[in-house]
Design goal:
By secondary structure, the chain is α/β, with parallel strands linked by helices. It contains nine helices and five strands, in the order ααααβββαβαβααα. Strands 3-2-1-4-5 form a five-stranded mixed β-sheet, sandwiched between helices. It is elongated and about 90 Å long. The chain starts with a helix and ends with a helix.
Length: about 270
């Protein structure tokens, strides 16, 4: 055939090789774009690389970065956001029971919690999240118009966990946690209340990191017109966060997968 067309065999093989390479490039670019948009535009090169590896495709972060720049894929983490400062302080005498020891706990043994603001139709609303230190899973959440103990109680009531397993409930010194309502809930189930030191965000670092993730991937990335819309989309985000999102702290697996693996290992 090469003789008939009067071309060299080398030209044919060069064309074939280039064509195959272009096909692979197109498939890789499509995969990167798909993973980026399937994960709420939150994944950067590290998580996309791990997601591709899970799909049995080994690609360097440099290659992924080039593809993202080519298609203008900008992770939500690259945009700096402002912060609202809350000056109310909880002066209760409870001490810090976890002392920045955030790892090596049992399932549901230590829960951490915090609240953050979210704009709903140009009005401040609030989200409360409760996280299990064991696998960083969001086990309870609630959102409402007021930053109060009632919102914290609603988040506690949303948890589908065995309260008998909970030993410590750790929070910062926000006034919403300094309330007889919260104390009654914790005392009823013999749960100890642990508080961060005043002015030390590192004592509640897991909650701080979780909320940075929630703000970047969910709150700042969406526009909410009504509270019911916020509640519905928050529920969908929490499901994704627990069951689909790859967590670097857990070795790039999901909280639910981490829990399932550990339960299989534990006799």
């Amino acid at each position: 055939m090469c003789k008939c067309l009067k071309i060299s065999r080398q030209t044919y093989y060069t064309f074939l090789k280039t064509n195959q390479k272009n096909k692979v490039t197109v498939e890789l670019e499509s995969a990167v774009i798909r993973i980026f948009y399937d994960n709420k535009k939150a994944y950067g090169t590290r998580r996309i690389r791990r997601a591709l590896k899970n799909e049995r495709s080994q690609v360097s972060r440099k290659t992924i970065s080039k593809i993202m720049k080519k298609h203008h894929l900008i992770s939500s983490y690259q945009t700096k956001k402002y912060k609202v400062i809350n000056k109310s302080i909880n002066n209760k005498a409870e001490s810090n029971l976890i002392n920045q020891k955030f790892n090596h706990h049992y399932l549901c043994q230590v829960l951490v919690s915090d609240l953050t603001y979210v704009s709903v139709n140009n009005t401040w609303n609030y989200v409360c999240v409760i996280c299990d230190l064991y696998n960083r899973e969001i086990v309870g959440y609630a959102c409402g118009r007021n930053k109060t103990a009632d919102l914290v109680k609603e988040a506690l009531r949303s948890m589908k966990v065995d309260f008998k397993k909970i030993n410590i409930f750790h929070t910062d010194r926000g006034k919403e946690f300094d309330n007889q309502l919260i104390s009654e809930v914790l005392n009823t189930h013999n749960i100890k209340h642990s508080l961060s030191k005043k002015g030390c965000p590192y004592d509640n670092a897991v909650s701080e990191a979780t909320f940075k993730t929630i703000k970047t991937e969910f709150i700042y990335a969406n526009h909410f017109e009504t509270l019911p819309q916020l509640k519905q989309e928050l529920a969908a985000y929490v499901f994704w966060y627990n069951n689909i999102r790859l967590h670097s702290t857990l070795g790039y697996i999901t909280p639910v997968e981490y829990k399932q693996r550990k339960q299989k290992i534990t006799p």
